[in-house]
Amino acid sequence: LAPGWNKPAANLNGLVKVVATYCDVEANKPILFEVKGFPPIKVFPPELKEDKKNPGVFA
Fold first, then answer.
1. Taking the alpha carbons of 33, 36, 42, 46 in that order, is the dihedral positive or negative?
2. pLDDT tens digits, residue range 9-18?
3. What residues pair up with 50 in beta bridges, in sequence order?
């Protein structure tokens, strides 16, 4: 999906964050975000804030 998401990410810049992660490199990310299959699309509401001490953890 990555190449196809570059244009939407650019169009949404400033409105929402579009993020790609490479799960073969960051193996803990699928578990952390409860990914059950690929390719996932996850939405994080704006009221969730990333924990600065634990990057990737939102509360």
1. negative
2. 888 888 877 7
3. 58
Task: Tell me which residue has tokens 């924990």.
Answer: 51
**Residue 48's domain spans which residues?**
1-59
Query: With 70 as the cut, is the pLDDT of residue 48 above it?
Result: yes
For the entire predicted model, the pTM comes to 0.44
Report the C-alpha gap between 33 and 58 in whole angstroms.
10
Residues whose CB falls within 8 Å of the CB of residue 9, separated by 6 or more in sequence, listed in order? 18
CA atoms of 59 and 24, how far apart (whole Å): 25
Number of domains in the chain: 1
Q: DSSP letters along 2-34, please? A: HHHHHHHHHHTTTT-------TTTSTTHHHHTT
